[in-house]
Structures are given as structure tokens and as C-alpha cells.
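Example record

The entry below shows one chain as it appears in the dataset: sequence first, then C-alpha cells.
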Amino acid sequence: MALTSAALADGLGRIGDRLEASADELNALDAKIGDGDLGVTMTRISREMRGVLPDLPDDLGMAFMKCVQSVTKASGSSYATLVATALMSVAKATRGKTELPWGELSPLLGGALEAMRARGKSELGQKTVLDAVEAARAATEGLDEPEAIRTAAAKAVDDALEAFREKPNLAGRARIWSEKSVGLDDPGMVAFQRMIDGLAS
């Protein structure tokens, strides 16, 4: 079993459905420490990406690049930029490949994490989506079966949300309300959690 363009399209379609269903939740979370439009952003991305999923090329790198183009067309927000940056990293790593062993997903998350860290000028431990991605990367290292990967990632992100809930946001717009953010879940981390949730549907 391996990740193919067809499997990618199926997974991204389900993720998009879950994100759209979570739009109100994400908007409400974001309104407490941000602009309140994260759900709108993720819905726009999901709908734009849905238009290219039926025709993704077999080359995984090219398929991911199609997704990057959808994200950048849908939104220029900071979170969308991080999503596009992550997908760009994966596109470069999978260029020329028509399938990818599931065991390589953890290293891909690691590469995406580094790209996001550099683009967003933030670090681990600042209560951002980076902390959720790192939790998923670490938990899935060495795993090579899709459901085991999803289950491990989901639990790791749940645990990360709990671990960071009582900490302040120290990066991005949310840092302006760092004291207010104590006791709240980071919206970006929750959005990543919903992406993983979508793979279970």
C-alpha cells in the first residue's frame, strides 16, 4: 500500500468536507484571539481545491503543486500561506514519484514543518499549528499503515492541544492577546486536528 494521486484526491476531498463542516467552530475560536475568519479561509481553500482533485496528475509532486496553486488562489491569509508552504515542501520531496510508501509520511511532515517554521518565523513551543504538526510527525515516525498513522496522529494532536491549552500564544496575531489566550485552544492547531479527523470519515 502506498500514497498515490488517487488516494491523495480522496483524502483531500474528505478533509475538505470536514473543514467546511467545522467552519463555524473555527471562526468562533479564531474570533477570540484573531480575525474570526479561519473557518471562512479553510472553506475557501477546500472549495477551490475540490475543483482540481478530479484531474490530479499521477506524478505526486505535480499533484501537490496543483493543490498549492488552489490554496494560493483561494486565500492570501497567514494560515493559508503556511498551508501552501507545507504543500510546496511535500511537492518538492515527491516530484517524479507516482507512489509513496506510507512510512515516508512522517519525514514529509518534518520537511513541511521546517518550511512552515521558516516562512512563519515562529518556533516550536509558541502554541501554533507547528506544535500540532510536530506532535503528529513524532507520533507517526516508523509507522507504515494508514489507519495506524491516522490514529497515532489524532491522539498526538489531541494531547498537544491539551498540553498547550493553559499556555499563552507567543506567535502571530494571537500573541497580541497572549494573556487572553491562556485557557483557549489555538485555532490553527484545531484546524489541523480537523484535517486529521476528516481522514476518519
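Notes for this example: The chain has ten helices and two strands. The chain has a mean pLDDT of 95.
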